[in-house]
Amino acid sequence: MGEVDRFFADQTRTGRVRRRSVLGRDLDGRLDAVGAYVGETIRRAAGGVWQVDLHDPENGRLLLLLDDGARLHPLRDVRRMFEELCTTGTPTGVAVYGALHGAASQPAARAELGRG
User: How many whole angstroms separate alpha carbon 63 and alpha carbon 49?
Assistant: First the structure.
């Protein structure tokens, strides 16, 4: 998941997506793909199922129900983290997001959570 954070940082410059970057073409589709990757990585690590939520279009309709009862919207959450990076320059925190939900494969993420 730390690679996603690095990827996002590499794809942006001064608060914007680089024109000739991978995300410079079809940003929405590619952010959804990254969100799906993050969600599936969490699902495989923590257990759970994907569900379509027809009553919640604001949250992207795709809901990840984890075995521990957590309800995640990874497509929406990854998009928000990316938008925050572009707006504030704050690192996205995808590795920490994954670690919080059971997919702590990066030592830095575990350390930031106090598990390192």
Answer: 8
Residue 19, pLDDT score: 86
How many other C-beta atoms lie within 10 A of the C-beta of residue 90? 10
Is residue 101 within 8 Å of residue 90, measured between CB atoms?
Answer: no
84 near 92, Cβ under 8 Å? yes
Q: Which residues of 59-82 are buried (b: 16+ CB within 10 A; e: fewer)?
A: ebebbbbbeeeeebbbbbbbbebb
User: Which of the pair, 111 or 68, is modelled with greater confidence?
Assistant: 68
| Helices marked H in the chain | 2-11, 27-46, 74-88, 94-100, 107-112
pTM: 0.83
Distances (CA, A) of 85 to 5, 53, 66, 88, 104: 10, 27, 27, 6, 21
Range with the lowest mean pLDDT among 14-23, 26-35, 41-50, 57-66?
57-66
For 61, which DSSP code? S
